[in-house]
């Protein structure tokens, strides 16, 4: 569930630019002065909504089938949000972990000047194909 795709409706704003709504997440609204800015703002707004839901342990709604959405006075654009990339960028606060390794391995690693935190991070990234 790292890459999520949600339909958004882009509406032309009276004052120029676009405002954007998400049928599956009614509280998620944004705007932009042009199509590019509106799209970037939509990605940010979607990400903020989804990560807030996740932090609150709320169910993230399933994305609607784009063919079943009434676009009203706008047009449909599917917005992609990469949850893993967002976490890497915004959730990189260090977390202390306690672990156990054999004494002989610890001594050899210390003697070799190994950075335990770096090795653990690299191994976890590789193990989980991140």
UniProtKB/TrEMBL annotation:
SUPFAM superfamilies: TTHA1013/TTHA0281-like
Residue span(s) of domain HicB-like antitoxin of toxin-antitoxin system: 6-96
Domain of life: Bacteria
Protein name (Swiss-Prot/TrEMBL): Type II toxin-antitoxin system HicB family antitoxin
Organism annotation: Candidatus Onthocola gallistercoris
């Amino acid at each position: 569930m790292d890459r999520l795709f949600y339909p958004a409706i882009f509406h032309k704003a009276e004052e120029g630019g676009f405002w954007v709504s998400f049928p599956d997440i009614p509280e998620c609204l944004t705007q932009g002065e042009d199509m590019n800015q509106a799209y970037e703002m939509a990605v940010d707004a979607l990400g903020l909504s989804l990560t807030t839901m996740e932090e609150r342990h709320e169910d993230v709604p399933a994305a609607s089938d784009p063919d079943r959405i009434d676009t009203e006075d706008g047009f449909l654009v599917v917005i992609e949000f990469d949850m893993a990339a967002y976490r890497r960028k915004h959730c990189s606060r260090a977390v202390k972990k306690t672990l156990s390794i054999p004494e002989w391995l610890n001594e050899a690693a210390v003697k070799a000047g190994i950075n335990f935190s770096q090795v653990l991070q690299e191994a976890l990234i590789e193990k989980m194909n991140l």
